[in-house]
Amino acid sequence: MSPELRLKLKTALAGRRSVDMGQFQFLNLDRVRSRAGDDWPRLREKVYETSTQFIERRIGPDDVMIRVQGGFLIIFRASDVEASHLMVEAISGELNSFFLGEAGLEEVRSEAEARDVPTSELLEIVARSQPHDHSNPATGKSEAKPGLPADLETPWTPAPATERDDDGKTRWVEAPRPEARDRPSLVRVPADSSAASQQSWDDIVFRPVWDSRKSFISHHICVARKIVDGFAYYGRETLSGAADREQHQQLDRAVALSAQRGFQRARSAGHGSMIIVPVHYESLSTVSRRMEYFKILQPIPEPARRFFLLRIDGVPDGAPIAQLQEVCRSMKHFGAYVLVHHRFGLTQLDRFESCGIGIFSADTPPRLNDDGAADKDLMTCVAWVSAAIQMSAETSLLEIENTALLEAAISAGVRYFSGQEIAAEVEVPGPPRRLSLSAILNPPVEPGAHSDTFEID
To answer: What is the 3-state secondary structure of 99-132?
Structure first.
């Protein structure tokens, strides 16, 4: 352990009897090593370097990150075990998504948890999981060297440290779990007070989004659903006629609350899930409307907000650029990043400059699902993708019902897709899972038989 890291650890533990500790353990490194051969050192370092970047991006300046055998430890300066749990869960979800789409690392899995532990036990975990120098340069004899500064030592006998994770195995140190604070309580979401009779939709579901570049389900869109004569309508299609502002606001509120409940249910099932939350521009266009909408998102703890992506629907062509930038900046505090959903064929995206949009999405026109894409439609997709790249953003096509169109759009550079041809909607957002293009083009007889669920604990 470097002197700088020792000093930072000492500062974080000063005067504290217990701390919130996050643990990350990498599983299946032995499998990766056996298959990688001479490429193992590069892959091993990629696991740790990427993890270091992901963790450093999340933690605060006073938190301490320590690389240990088979994973990482985080010592949080603040005492909030629920926030710490959500933080490590978010990091673990990002890591698992990365590993799933990275060649050679598909089998690597990050397991993570956070808990409150006595300071003495934390120091023991750190000491036992750090490599120790057992030789004295002056005498040549083997001597035990503590891995911590003298004023942080406790009267335990450190377990002999062996070689680091180069052998592909994980040696994880478990601390006793405090009974009273074993698992943080879920975020409490207020019940929706809207009367069912006033709703124009039947229920709210989660539609999977497929990442064509990494071949797995990466997100879920939270949308309202209405069944009419056997046909399903989604999102704002469920609003009858020319919907007014109040109808959009009612829908936005219901969707935002359902997204939070869906996240809680997914978390209770033992995994994280990235959720896209649509909101109409009319619900955000003034400060008062934004504040009213943000009250719904405010109960979400800040670490958990990284699981939510906010999508702006219905941006009018004449929306002032300054107003757009203000709306987008205000939304960044409540989600990982902001999306914009607009009509198909819009390739002039200059007005979204400096808005920090992560994904531009559009619904697939029915004629393209029925007849496929003509050359001009493909050129439109190419121009759209190019314009999005200029904004440092990706593109997403929804309501895909034509596999030939799907292949054409992929060739044009569109990255994300959603629709019945991709995967059916679900009541609870699931974890990231592998889904190949061939499985979409040639679905099995039994639904779900083509993919393996990749859970995030």
So the answer is: HHCCCCCCCCEEEEEEEEEEHHHHHHHHHHHCCC
Q: Are 336 and 307 in contact (CB under 8 A)?
A: yes
Contact 265, 300 (CB under 8 A): no
User: 7-29 pLDDT, tens per residue?
Assistant: 888 888 888 888 889 988 898 88
List Cβ<8 Å contacts ≥24 apart for 49-56.
50/95, 50/98, 51/24, 51/26, 51/95, 51/110, 54/91, 54/94, 54/95, 54/98, 55/24, 55/91
Confirm if 180 and 418 have CB atoms less than 8 A apart. no
Which two three-digit tokens encode residue 414? Answer: 């569109």
Q: Is 424 within 8 Å of 232 (Cβ atoms)?
A: no
Positions of E strands within 306-401: 308-313, 338-342, 357-363, 394-398
The whole-chain average pLDDT of the chain stands at 80
Beta strands 308-313 and 231-234: pairing type?
unpaired
Span 360-382, average pLDDT = 91
Distance of alpha carbon 174 from alpha carbon 124, whole angstroms: 11
Q: Compute the distance between CA of residue 58 and CA of residue 22 in angstroms, rounded to an integer.
A: 12
User: Which pairing describes strands 394-398 and 109-118: parallel, antiparallel, or unpaired?
Assistant: unpaired
Query: Which stretch of DSSP H or E encloses residue 23?
Result: strand 18-27
**Taking a C-beta distance cutoff of 8 angstroms, is the pair 71, 25 a contact?**
yes
Task: Give the angle subtended at the CA of 93 by the CAs of 325 and 206, to the nearest 5°.
Answer: 70
For strands 18-27 and 109-118, give the pairing.
antiparallel
433: its two tokens: 């899972």
**pLDDT exceeds cutoff 80 at 216:** yes
Band the pLDDT of 178: cuts 50, 70, 90.
very low
Number of CB atoms found within 10 A of residue 209's CB:
24
- How far is 260 from 179, CA to CA, in rounded Å? 27
Is the pTM here over 0.70, yes or no? no
Residue 43, amino acid:
L
CB contact at 8 A, 222 and 275: yes
Contact indicator for 381, 400 with CB cutoff of 8 Å: no
Question: What's the pLDDT tens digit per position in 36-64?
Answer: 899 999 999 999 998 998 888 778 788 89
Helices 375-390, 403-412: axis angle to 10 degrees equals 40
Specify the pLDDT at position 103. Answer: 83
